[in-house]
C-alpha cells in the first residue's frame, strides 16, 4: 500500500487550487494551516474529491474541515488507506 506524503498532498492542493507552490520544505509546511498557505475551503473540497478518486478513500466534509494542516489531511487519508 502506498501512503500519501505531505509533498504529494501539497502538489494535489496546488493543482486543484491553481497558483504557485508554497515556499518551504515539507517539514516547514506540514504543520502550517492551509489558510496561511493561501488555500481556502473550496480548494480543500476539490482536493478531497481528487484524493477520493485517486486513492479510493472516503473523506467526509467534516473530516476535511477539521484537517487544518497538510500533515493532518495526509494523516486522515493514510488512516483511511490503512483501514482498507
Describe how the helices and strands are arranged:
Layout: H1 6-17, H2 26-30, H3 34-37, H4 41-55, H5 61-66, H6 70-83
Helix pairs in contact: 1-4
Radius of gyration: 12 Å
Order of helices and strands: HHHHHH
Helix content: 55-70%
Structural class: mainly alpha
The rounded distance between the terminal residues' Cα atoms is: 10 Å
Number of alpha- plus pi-helical segments: 6
What profile does the largest beta sheet have? none
Number of strands: 0
What descriptors fit this protein?
84 residues, mainly alpha, 6 helices
Explain how this protein is built.
The chain has helices at residues 6-17, 26-30, 34-37, 41-55, 61-66, 70-83. The protein has 84 residues and is an all-alpha fold. The chain has 6 helices and no strands. The chain is globular and about 35 Å long.
Brief overview:
The protein has 84 residues and is mostly helical. It is built from six helices and no strands.
Amino acid at each position: 500500500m502506498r501512503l500519501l506524503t505531505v509533498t504529494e498532498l501539497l502538489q494535489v492542493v496546488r493543482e486543484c487550487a491553481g497558483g504557485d507552490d508554497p515556499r518551504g520544505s515539507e517539514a516547514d509546511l506540514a504543520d502550517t494551516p492551509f489558510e496561511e498557505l493561501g488555500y481556502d475551503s473550496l480548494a480543500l473540497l476539490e482536493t478531497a474529491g481528487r484524493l477520493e478518486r485517486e486513492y479510493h478513500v472516503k473523506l467526509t466534509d467534516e473530516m476535511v474541515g477539521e484537517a487544518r494542516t497538510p500533515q493532518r489531511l495526509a494523516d486522515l487519508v493514510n488512516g483511511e488507506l490503512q483501514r482498507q
